[in-house]
Amino acid sequence: EAWQGRPVDYIAPAPPSFAAKYTELGGMPSAMLNRSVVLNGRAANVLLQRAVDCVQRYNCYRMELYFDVGGARSSPAKVDVSLSPAWDTAMLHVIAPGGKDVIDSLYAISQASYFSESAYNMTDWASRYWGTNYARLEGIKAVADPAGVFTCRHCVGDASE
User: I want to staple 15 with a disulfide (CB 3.0 to 4.6 A). Which of 21, 57, 105, 151 is the partner?
Assistant: First the structure.
């Protein structure tokens, strides 16, 4: 097979088998990277290693970088919202689906994640999604939904682990 005259294996080498590519349960995790992690090079090192692993280990899903954070959220004015306060200092929003090694490398350099981009087995989800707001949100949920009717994985009040 070829694409634009080049063998497909040149673009993204084919794994030796389906099982070689899909070896563990992953997710679509995101990380909010703050200015210091971006400027000191830690973010570049992690993202470069992800790109190298992507080709060498045949696990190229995709990696997305967004500059959609900051703005009004990073203004000095206090905004009373549910998001983790780590969003206030975020400079870069990274989405890098993959297995535990990818997820762990991203989480090591960030404090927050976007709720809609989750890793099913995330261990510190309450802190990553809601930060210091979690206790306040639990109080609101207890009043608004005392029977616990409205629930989902990693939502406020989720007791599953």
Answer: 21
